[in-house]
Specification:
By secondary structure, this protein is an alpha/beta fold. 35% of the residues lie in helices and 15% in strands. Strand 9 and strand 10 form a beta hairpin. Helix 3 crosses helix 8. The mean pLDDT is 92.
């Protein structure tokens, strides 16, 4: 019998491809980890009292706040953050959230029956949501009751980072906690100065350690202020009862790595900044402020992002993501100087062409017809896009590129949504059955 998954991974590992995508270990970690379960002398992830409690204490010291492990990524942490905020607000379910929310936040809203008020600043596109403290203050001041929290994504998938400090000040002025999806920014704590949301005033935050640190896929952190209790109970509500001990060992091992090698993160960020500057002088345009992400806007250079990705792959460079507008390259401290040099050389070898002149269309909030939970839990039909106009979106199968969702469950689909979804390669959509 063949082993297609094992074969693919082995062949990819032996191909010599530059890994400009997550996970952050870039294939350089030689795994000597053993897979076990909660045997005698081990510990329980959601009732820790021994070695897991000791390891999480080490992580808490590194991050400067209470830190808890997840072996199910930031998705588990996001759902737990929303539950923790609900517990503190005596049954209220209103959340004020920036529109560029991850799929896990939408599933949290469905599972917890959250009512979401979206922040979508004027001028937002499917790529960019330039949220400011004024946007948050305007939204909070207009709400009839305080939300259970304000929820932001920073850095977002393409690499934009809003001013968390000023937004946190506004949230605390209104007595509302700030929860941040920092899935792409675990390393931000180890820059000088720290750019981590918990150091900028956030009350809760999740990091996908595996995205930018040498951690196995699925390893993540949930960080909180001291005021939050029963964190493990909230996590257990959504988590598997069989956490991965391979991932737990990886999270434990990275504590020692961070203690000894945090300086390499600063040096890598400096190298990425230098590479971006050199490529900008060469004519390339970039998006976002995230220090260890290179998001290339291809159209000013004459290429769609998907075409650029094909060129990179032909040169054995695998990007994290591409769409018609951008190519996302993710760097970590495990990215070698040789790999960075190769990326620069390939990009500099691509001839500049006339700019592609079409621009992204600004998006507006769709009409909300039903709650996210009601839509997500309803029977649905799968329709070709041309037959979906006027229908209510069900599941998140037709929502967005990894940036600002075009349509959410419970919202009515119009012609502009269909045009944008088709632009991003969708051909059908799940809609609530009538």
């Amino acid at each position: 019998m063949n082993t297609p998954i094992c074969d693919f991974v082995r062949d990819y590992a032996q191909s010599g491809t530059v890994r400009m995508h997550m996970p952050g270990h870039k294939g350089t970690t030689e795994s000597t980890l053993l897979d076990i379960t909660e045997i005698e002398g081990a510990d329980e992830l959601f009732h820790p009292h021994g070695i897991i409690a000791e390891s999480e204490k080490n992580a808490s010291e590194l991050f400067g706040c209470p830190t808890y492990y997840s072996t199910e990524g930031s998705s588990l942490c996001i759902r737990s953050m929303m539950h923790l905020c609900m517990l503190r607000r005596e049954g209220r379910k209103q959340v004020l959230a920036a529109r560029n929310a991850h799929f896990a936040f939408v599933t949290a809203a469905a599972l917890l029956d959250l009512e979401v008020t979206w922040i979508l600043p004027k001028g937002s596109t499917s790529l960019s949501l330039p949220i400011t403290s004024d946007d948050v203050e305007n939204a909070l001041s207009s709400m009839n009751e305080k939300p259970v929290c304000v929820y932001l994504t920073s850095p977002d998938y393409p690499g934009h980072m809003p001013d968390i400090s000023s937004i946190a000040e506004v949230c605390h002025k209104y007595g509302v906690p700030l929860a941040v999806d920092n899935a792409h920014g675990a390393y931000l704590r180890f820059l000088s100065p720290s750019l981590h949301p918990m150091d900028q005033g956030a009350d809760l935050c999740c990091d996908s350690a595996h995205k930018t640190l040498p951690v196995l896929t699925g390893g993540a952190y949930l960080h909180t202020k001291e005021a939050f209790s029963h964190v493990k109970d909230s996590m257990a509500l959504f988590a598997s009862t069989s956490p991965s001990w391979l991932i737990l060992q990886s999270l434990d091992a990275v504590n020692a790595w961070l203690f000894d090698h945090a300086e390499s993160i600063k040096k890598t960020a400096e190298k990425v900044s230098a590479a971006r500057n050199e490529l900008e002088h060469f004519g390339w345009c970039f998006y976002g402020e995230e220090p260890m992400k290179i998001t290339i806007l291809g159209k000013p250079y004459g290429y769609e992002g998907t075409e650029l990705a094909k060129i990179l792959r032909k040169n054995l460079i695998e990007p994290e993501f591409s769409d018609p507008d951008m190519v996302v390259l993710m760097v970590s401290s495990e990215t070698s100087e040789e790999d960075m040099k190769r990326v620069k050389e390939v990009l500099e070898s691509i001839p500049k062409r006339d700019a592609i002149s079409d621009f992204e269309t600004c998006i507006a909030l769709p009409e909300k017809v039903m709650s996210i939970r009601e839509a997500s839990m309803s029977p649905f039909d799968v329709l070709d896009l041309e037959n979906a106009e006027g229908r209510i979106a069900a599941l998140m199968s037709c929502s967005c590129p990894p940036a600002v969702p075009v349509i959410m469950p419970g919202e009515r689909i119009d012609a502009s949504h269909i045009e944008m979804l088709r632009y991003y390669g969708y051909s059908d959509c799940k809609v609530v059955k009538t």
